[in-house]
Specification:
196 residues, mainly alpha, single chain, extended, 8 helices, 2 domains
Length: 196
C-alpha cells in the first residue's frame, strides 16, 4: 500500500491514462477483427482490460497470427499488442512505484526528443531543461521589471504556445519524479532502492 497521497495520485493518473489508451487500442483491434472476420466480441472493454489483460493480449496475438490483414490493419494490431504489453507491465507489476517512475522517464524522454526535433527545425536544437531555464530567467527578469527593479522592456518568450505547453508538461513530469524519489527515499532501505 502506498502511504503517500501524492504518489498514489500520480500512480492513479498513470494507470488511468494507460488504461484508456489500452481500451482505445483494443477497440481499434475489434474494428479490424470485424472488417476481417465479420465478427467482434461484445464486451465491457474496461473490465476486460482491468481483469483479464493477458487474455486480451492472447486474443490479439491470435488475431495477428491467424488472419490475413493489410498494412494499416497490421499496424493497428501491433499497436494494440504493444499497448497491452505495456499495460500489463505496469498494472500487474509487484513494484508499481518503480514501473510508474520508469513510465515518467519514458514520457519525459519522448517529450524532450519531440522538443529537440521542433527546435532543430527552427535552426537550433534545445533540450527542455535548457528551454525551461530560459523561460525561468525571462520570467524572473520580467517580474523584476514589473517591480521597477530592472530597466528595459518586457521580454517575449522565444517559443510557440505549443512549445511552452511542452515546457510546462516537462516541468510537471519532473515534479512527479521528485515526489516519487522523495517517497522512495523515505520509505525504502538502500537495498530496496537498488532493486527499485
Amino acid at each position: 500500500m502506498i502511504k503517500d497521497k501524492r504518489v498514489s495520485e500520480i500512480i492513479n493518473e498513470i494507470l488511468k491514462k494507460e488504461m484508456n489508451k489500452t481500451i482505445e487500442s483494443f477497440v481499434q483491434v475489434e474494428k479490424v477483427n470485424k472488417e476481417i472476420t465479420g465478427r467482434s466480441l461484445e464486451m465491457d472493454y474496461k473490465n476486460m482490460v482491468l481483469l483479464y489483460p493477458s487474455i486480451l493480449l492472447e486474443y490479439v496475438d491470435n488475431l495477428e497470427k491467424n488472419t490475413t490483414y493489410n498494412e494499416e490493419q497490421g499496424n493497428i494490431i501491433k499497436n494494440a499488442q504493444k499497448q497491452l504489453e505495456n499495460w500489463i507491465s505496469i498494472y500487474e507489476s509487484p513494484n508499481i512505484v518503480s514501473e510508474c517512475y520508469e513510465y515518467l522517464i519514458q514520457e519525459k524522454n519522448k517529450l524532450d526528443n519531440d522538443f529537440k526535433e521542433r527546435t532543430r527545425n527552427k535552426g537550433s536544437e534545445e533540450t527542455l531543461l535548457l528551454a525551461s531555464a530560459k523561460i525561468g530567467g525571462i520570467a524572473l527578469r520580467n517580474l523584476q521589471r514589473e517591480n521597477n527593479n530592472l530597466e528595459g522592456n518586457i521580454e517575449e518568450y522565444p517559443y510557440t504556445t505549443e512549445e511552452l505547453e511542452m515546457i510546462d508538461k516537462f516541468s510537471e513530469i519532473t515534479k512527479k519524479q521528485e515526489i516519487i524519489e522523495e517517497y522512495v527515499e523515505q520509505n525504502y532501505s538502500e537495498e530496496d532502492e537498488e532493486q527499485i
